[in-house]
Amino acid sequence: MKSSGLYLAIFSFVMLTCACEKVIRDEPLVEDLSRLLEEQFSSYSNSFTNDIGVALVIRDAQGVEFGQFGFDKPYTVNTLHRAASTTKTFTGAAIMKLYQEGKLDIDDVITNLIPGMDEPYIPDEESYDIPHKNAITIRKLLQHRAGVFDLSNQAVPDSVDAVYAGAFYFDYIKEMKGSNYSFTKEELVAPVAKHKLSYFAPGTGFHYSNTGFVLLGIIVERVSGLSLNEYLQESFLAPLDLDQTRFAITGVDAPEAPTMDNYLLIDGTESPSGFDNLSSAQAEGNIITSLNDLSVWAYRLYGTSEILDSEMVNQMTNVTETGDWVGNYGLATTAFPLELGVGHDGAHQGFMTIMRYHAPTKSAYVAVTNMLDVDDFGSQVATMLGVIEAGISYRESKQ
């Protein structure tokens, strides 16, 4: 998980007439919820030099509640941020929608032919000749149990015969070709194939792999005949009116206003975190969104049958223990700890985001903070999960 944010917010769209523009409305702050966030977050945020805040949005069938604390300027449900690995729930839902429609089978191996086509799920090319490809199923990719080497979160092994041995591959390429270099999906996989990098045989372990989700994005494209962005737009963003959500695919894609100052703490140095090239995170961590949009997505995906039928949602949320820092994982869905519900987390430079749907309260909870604490990542995650827990307790007290 290489990106993040911890805001929770939400916004409403008001349609006037077909000749008028859509009006975006900010949700008013709920004072009780904001005070709760101050109690939960102040001791953590006070350890930083800059103004580090937290925002939370709670959404159910009746509407939303929004609270914030600690930012140096007002945070709204429409403020944009990089929500990192919450992207995986979109890619995963795309796979499951195609499965629901009979256009693929998640228990097929990725070298199988696509149903009704004479092309395999992944290209039969050298760049995709990854280890164990004839035994990797789509399901195993969704579960992070395929053993696919994670090219974004782990340095290339020193033993590899390449100039970038021992380095993080994407950082090396951006240093050589420029920070705004636009990666293709093929480039996001090719080094794994070239150097035969793998963790284990499929199904014999768990290892979080962003590269595995890049492969899933490629499968969506080959099955649907659309680019991944086109498919997500047509299938999810447009029908749900997620107008503030997009997925960066070039090296210069960046959030448009409104945005929030954000920071990075690494090796004891706290510094502003500005633009970041997300083209290396396609299909796994390249989402730019708002708290409003992300809470709509969490509620509709996990709390209704509007996006996927109940059988598909049940498969996504049927989590098992990983024995890893992720805790419990299903299909593109985490549930850690179990009592907080299902969703996904996202950590990227400058932000940490926690997204959950909690079935007992029938509500979605999304929290974000404008800091990525690399030095004490575990404490930050625990603090953010505490924000979600406090939000659930707040909602339970009102029901």
Structural notes for this entry:
By secondary structure, this protein is an alpha+beta fold. The protein has two domains: 11-84 and 249-398, DD-peptidase/beta-lactamase superfamily (Beta-lactamase, 3-Layer(aba) Sandwich); 89-224, DD-peptidase/beta-lactamase superfamily (Beta-lactamase, 3-Layer(aba) Sandwich), CATH 3.40.710. It has helices at residues 31-45, 87-100, 138-143, 169-177, 185-194, 210-224, 228-237, 291-303, 310-317, 377-398; strands at residues 11-14, 23-26, 54-60, 63-69, 80-84, 246-247, 263-266, 269-272, 287-290, 320-321, 328-329, 342-348, 351-358, 363-369, 371-373. The strands form five sheets. It has a five-stranded antiparallel beta sheet, sandwiched between helices. The chain has a three-stranded antiparallel beta sheet with strand order 5-9-6. A hairpin with an 8-residue loop joins strand 1 and strand 2 (23-26). Helix 1 (31-45) runs antiparallel to helix 10 (377-398). The longest helix is centred in the last third of the chain and has 22 residues, at 377-398. The radius of gyration is 20 Å and the shape is globular. The model is unreliable at 1-25 (pLDDT under 50).
Question: What's the gist of this structure?
Answer:
By secondary structure, this protein is an alpha+beta fold. 31% of the residues lie in helices and 18% in strands.
Helices and strands in order, then pairings?
Blueprint: E1 11-14, E2 23-26, H1 31-45, E3 54-60, E4 63-69, E5 80-84, H2 87-100, H3 138-143, H4 169-177, H5 185-194, H6 210-224, H7 228-237, E6 246-247, E7 263-266, E8 269-272, E9 287-290, H8 291-303, H9 310-317, E10 320-321, E11 328-329, E12 342-348, E13 351-358, E14 363-369, E15 371-373, H10 377-398
Parallel strand pairs: 7-15
Antiparallel strand pairs: 1-2, 3-4, 3-14, 5-9, 6-9, 7-8, 10-11, 12-13, 13-14
Helix pairs in contact: 1-10, 2-6
